Amino acid sequence: MDFTGRQREGSAISTIYIDRRFSGPPDSANGGYACGLLARYTGNPAEVTLHSPPRLDTPLTVTRGDDGQVFLMDGEIPVASGKPWAGEITVPDPPTLEQVMNTPADQDITERIWYHGCFVCGTERAAGDGLRIFANRRLAAGGLADIWVPDSSLADSRGLVPAEMIWAALDCPGAWVCQMDKARVVVLGRMAADISAPVPAGRPYIIMGWHISGQGRKTQSGTALYDASGQVLARSLSTWIELQTVPNLPG
Question: What angle do CA 213, 53, 21 make, to 5 degrees?
Answer without folding.
Answer: 105
